[in-house]
Amino acid sequence: MKEFKIFAIVVILSGVLYWGIEPYAHTKLHPHTANAEYNFSKEDTDYAKHFLEQKKTALETAKASGNKASIDAATKDVEVAQKILDDYTAFWNDINSIDLTKGDATKGADTFVAAGCTGCHGIEAADMPASMDAETASQSFGVVPPDLSTAGKIYDERFLAALIKNPTMAVKLSHKFNDEHLYPMTAFMGAGGDINAEVADIVAYLKKVSADADAKSKITEEKVFADACQRCHDMKYDKKYTLGNKVSLAAYMGSNPPDLSMMIRSKGDEYLHKFINDTQKMLPGTAMPRVGLNKAAEDDVVAYIQKVGDKKKAERESTGLYVMIYFFILGIFAWLWKRKVWSELH
């Protein structure tokens, strides 16, 4: 009976530690963030509202302290946060006013060329190679402009429209790029017609190109990763390396983007989903742009990262179960042996 009491105490203490103390510590070290949101308009405005509320709370705290310098700084922060909310609200209202269902792929192909998009981007699936090789492009722009063969398949269509009209706002890098420090991709200024209709046409064209490419040769998880991530990140465990010049990339980003081989083990799939979906939500101020993937493509990227970085996951989990069963059986034999030994002593 004594052994069962000891066992019960160990179980209770372990439970308190595992379900009580550990989750509490986790909430302090890793504050809760909202799940990935694929309606980018809602995501940006909700996040901006949350950011504004944080700054208003900080202002109230500053006012309570009576410190003029703190109050002035907090007031300025509130004004900045309000401007961010106003800017994103206006931006997404404009994007959401575009009727993407009326996009004409044929017109979009002409507009794509007429607007000069081919000066930076290639579309291999449409026999339209990039005008510069990766090394030259990275030295010119800091990062290699993507080939857009799969863009219409892997990126959210509203994100594509937003990226075309105002790339800095779409990728959430207004804190890094401005009128004095320009983003490498320029905003689409139109090709002479209704700019919103032209944006819809370009999106329709990219979607058609990607659909045709996917029908011809299925776009794999590996291909999605290559097109969405490999311009900046290595995947050394799968012998995939950053396109272009790493020195230029480091100067552009502020530091060399990390190799992603073990990222699934260090961060986990939930963090990766949230981070890919909205980098600023998980790491405010980061130089990494929002990727803009739709849910299916994001799932493909995380699945590929897991496949490369955690190949033994299923084997590890099944082995862990067998080890637990082994120790359970061993514990029973140990208890029976103890009873036998002590019964002979008494």
Plain-language structure description:
This protein is an all-alpha fold and 346 residues long. Among the domains are: 1-32; 314-345. It contains 16 helices and no strands. It has helices at residues 2-29, 40-65, 68-96, 105-114, 134-141, 151-154, 157-165, 167-170, 195-216, 221-229, 246-253, 263-267, 269-277, 279-282, 295-309, 313-345. Helix 3 packs across helix 7, helix 7 (157-165) packs across helix 9 and helix 10 crosses helix 15. The chain is globular and about 100 Å long. The model has no long low-confidence stretch (mean pLDDT 91). The chain crosses the membrane at residues 6-25, 319-337. Its EC number is 1.10.2.2. It comes from Campylobacter concisus.
In angstroms, what separates the terminal alpha carbons?
16 Å
Helix content: 55-70%
Report the biggest beta sheet as strand number plus sense, adding barrel if it closes: none
> Roughly what fraction of the amino acids lie in strands?
under 5%
What structural category do the secondary elements indicate? mainly alpha
How many helices? The count is 16
State the shape: globular
How many E strands? 0
Q: What is the string of helix and strand elements?
A: HHHHHHHHHHHHHHHH
Mean pLDDT, nearest integer? 91
Low-confidence stretches: none
Radius of gyration: 27 Å
